[in-house]
Specification:
Double Stranded RNA Binding Domain; six-stranded mixed beta sheet; 3 helices
Length: 141
Amino acid sequence: MIQCGRFALSRLKNVTMRLFLRPALVLAGAMIGTPLAASSPVTLICPENPVPAMARLCAALEAGLRDRGYRPQAGGGAPLRLIVEADSPGPGVLNARLIVEQDGSRQVGEQGQITVIDRDSIPFAQIEQFAGTLLQRAIGP
């Protein structure tokens, strides 16, 4: 009987601890993979003298950051820096990746590419989708 009582007390303690820890675990799980909380300042560094497709990509990245609650800042003082590496070998091709620098670490994202063959240039809607994909892979939703 005493063991049953201890078991019941132990089980009650475990349930109580799980109820108290669950919100903390959910919060910790939500933060895994997220460099900073939304509304944090971020520096977006784009290539100098970009061709039109790269300039539109940088504009779409900035808009995507704002939509996610980040505050893009000029200069390099923000704790989170996103560096855009992009090239456009032709008007219908755009290659790009994001490099994330934060807390002394540097993560190079995988390169993506947009190619169109039925138009003279890449439509802005496709560049916006591409920017969203790059941001999601770099900093999450």
